[in-house]
Amino acid sequence: MSKVLELKNIEKTFYAGTVNENYVLKNLSLDLEEGDYVTVIGGNGAGKSTMLNIISGALMPDSGNVVIDGEDVTKLKEYQRAKYLGRVFQDPRMGTATHMSISENMAIANRRGSKRGLKWGLPKSEEAEYKELLSILDLGLENRLDTKMGLLSGGQRQAVTLLMATIQRPRLLLLDEHTAALDPKTAAKVLEITDRIVTQNRLTTVMITHNMRDAIKHGNRLVMLDAGRVILDIKGEEKQNLTVDQLLKKFEHLGGESTLSDRMLLG
Fold first, then answer.
1. Among candidate residues 204, 104, 84, the one with its CA nearest the CA of residue 149
2. What CATH number should be reported for the domain whose range is 3-84+170-266?
3. Where along the chain do its domains lie?
4. What is this structure's pTM?
5. Residues 6 or more apart in contact with residue 158 via CB below 8 angstroms
6. Which end of the chain is more exposed for a tag (fewer CB within 10 A), N or C?
7. How far apart are CA 1 and CA 199, in angstroms?
């Protein structure tokens, strides 16, 4: 299988040389093969979001390389990497235009990276395409194309954002705790939709979560970060048979009990 993502010896320090110096990522290396669906877990300050921001280009590493589909993109800015990536954030309000309709938001996502003209209106064929895509969410949104995004619930909006992030089938999908702001029932529904979209489109995916049960249940591979480094990387049958208790024990053994955050325990 070909490698979709390669992180090579990534280092990142915030406020270097000051009393607030924070050495976040320490010689971090991680490879994702085509079709990998990786859940990433770790305590607060483990470096999870920093890693995702470096992959997306929102942050630049101090040293090391980011390679996507064999191309070294380390020096490319965030907008230059957009052709490879789809991303869904924790806040359901991010990634969408509140005052625009569902169809308008999806049209913008569908035209990402292409030249845009001045023509108004949505072609009937495109409207039919969006209805078909929205129908897979099973939320009744296929009949609400003209509804403003700001009028949707957090779960509905996050589900639509997932569609928008994957409408062009990105080489790499980044999910940054995308269910953390939702109630448990809605979060479970969005994760179910996530699994369906990722599986149907065979999307290579990185999903950050604080929830150990979710990290075990979803994806084919689980990576644990602690203090800016990978301390656990399991997949296949070992991951399928893993329990929360076993994962906690592995974390305590490899990372130290003092670093285990309350949010992970409560998850």
1. 104
2. 3.40.50.300
3. 3-84+170-266
4. 0.90
5. 88, 92, 178, 179, 182, 190
6. N
7. 17
